[in-house]
Amino acid sequence: MLFDINITSSKANFAKKNNSLLVKFFTDEKKLKSDYSEFLKEHSITINTGLLKSFLTKDKKEISFANTVGKPDLIILKKVFADDKFDVDIFRDFLSKTIIGLKDKEIDKVEIQIPDFVAFKKYFSEEEYFYQTFVEGILLGNYNFDKYKTDKKKLNNLEVNFSANNSAKLKSVIGTTENLLNAVYLARDLSNEPAISLTPAELVKVTKSKLSKAGVSVSSFNKAELKKRKMNAILAVAEGSPNPPFLLKMHYKPTGKVTKRIALVGKGVTYDSGGYSIKPTEGMIEMNADMSGAATVIGTVYAAALNKLPVEIIAYVPAVENMISGSAYKPGDIISTASGKTIEVKNTDAEGRLVLADALEFASKQKPDEIIDFATLTGAIVVALGEFTSGLFTKNDKIAESLSVSGNKTFERVWRMPFWDEFKKGLDSDIADINNLGPRWGGAITAAKFLEQFVDDKIPYAHVDIAGPALKHKFKSYTEKFNTGYGVRLMFDYLKNR
Questions:
Q1: How far apart are CA 463 and CA 453, in angstroms?
Q2: pTM metric for this prediction
Q3: How many CA atoms lie within 13 A of 356 on its CB side?
Q4: 3-167 maps to which CATH number?
Q5: What's the rounded Cα separation, in Å, for the pair 124 and 88?
């Protein structure tokens, strides 16, 4: 982390203390000049005339300046209007950027005045979530992966105080959001961890250590058990690595009445060399993050447990490395899966769908109300949708609608893709039931159709391809430097509303 942060909502008013920052939002364009003058008068602030004029222009959205007269020491003013340029991520992204910008400043107290919810009511379904975006911004900006830095310094303390019109609702949000972001931190840590240390066995170990303390039952199938259960697709992908595979299992069952029983499945390829269909060097560098689907699922279960959601979750992660050796599986091989279906291997770099095949078949046997999987499955989805949007594949309109609503709300957005049965024809094999690679066109869709063949068709199912947004990208301040933990906030909201 960048700071050891403590978030409060009180009348402390840190703006009157030493080493303080005050963040003020202006939300009424028509009253900007008068509100601005009133603010300066209230805090006895003297400001450079040129800076004042620049802030009152249309183009200048924010200003930052040192207060040379009294307290606070630093002031950031931000214009946010409820107009056609507004989106629900503005406050989150801005406060994330603000925290990142404090890294080398002598500030240890931050006072944030949250604007009136009424001005933004049409954009947020509830007032609590409006406040949540502010808390998320602080915590997302505070994330840092410096585990392997040798020149680390002790974290400085940072006190952050929020003030809002509805202090009761704001206070109720802080604890829940801190729990949620602790789960996002876990997902990000797993996704950013190098493959040399996060082997399949270590992924199982870390998950047990973290989630068991939150009341989640965690167990795993080892290689012998996978053989016994004929999970040969998982075994085949793992065969080239000296690190043995596992099927990680998690079960969160809340006390009291359970509203839904949902199965989550996450791709847990802790490193993907491509196997004999080897990737170029530049394609391998980020492949420690090829288990980001697993990180999403683990983080989601953790968030649900920490916040005691009334939804039962069974979750599965096939954890493997896809490496090269004399025993590695090869293009042209035929694999018999736990379902009994056989797969012709056209490409060993299409390994994620193979390990998910056995995991999805096992999840189907548990007869959940629905199954959702997350995977960094294809580069094709990034070509189609870019780096910040995941591809959603489902035949179930209710799941699609709910995930889309939660995606737009959390700004972990999904886009529903075609999922017509005609695409399955591209997976036809002359020598097996199905092959693991479709034609060049529609690659993300044929990959999703492959997975669908291993799910009980009576169970509502969705596949989410997160190959773009799970990895670091420059579209937001909180996604720029490190892999993102994408999907945990999305799924927490989705499950909360189920």
A1: 12
A2: 0.98
A3: 33
A4: 3.40.220.10
A5: 7
pLDDT score for 59? 86
Distance CA 142, CA 148 (A): 17
Could you give the dihedral angle defined by the CA atoms of residues 325, 267, 232 and 244, in that order, rounded to the nearest 10 degrees?
50
Tell me if residue 266 falls in helix, strand or coil.
strand
Q: Which of 17, 223, 279, 476 is catalytic?
A: 279
What confidence score (pLDDT) does residue 70 get? 86
20 closest CA partner among 119, 123, 113: 113
Q: Which burial class, exposed, middle or buried, applies to 148 when counting CB atoms under 10 A from its CB (0-12, 13-18, 19+)?
A: exposed
Q: Does residue 259 have a pLDDT over 90? A: no
For the domain covering 185-496, report its CATH number: 3.40.630.10
Percent of the chain past pLDDT 90, that is, above it, reads 92
Residue range(s) of every CATH 3.40.630.10 domain in the chain:
185-496
Give the per-residue pLDDT at 88.
Answer: 97
Question: For the segment 59-102, what is each residue's pLDDT rounded down to a tens digit?
Answer: 899 999 998 888 999 999 999 999 999 999 999 999 999 999 99
Tokens 């915590």 sit on residue: 139
Task: Return the structure tokens found at 40.
Answer: 């300066």
Q: Among 377, 402, 391, 401, which Cα is nearest to 311's?
A: 402
Q: Is 279 a catalytic residue?
A: yes
Distance CA 5, CA 408 (A): 28
**Of residues 71, 353, 449, 489, which has the active-site annotation?**
353
For residues 97 and 263, give the distance between their C-alpha atoms in angstroms, rounded to a whole number.
35
Q: Which residue has the tokens 């490496």?
A: 323
Classify 321 as helix, strand or coil.
strand
Over residues 268-310, the pLDDT tens digits come to 999 999 999 999 999 999 999 999 999 999 999 999 999 999 9
With beta carbons less than 8 A apart as the criterion, state whether 147 and 102 touch. no
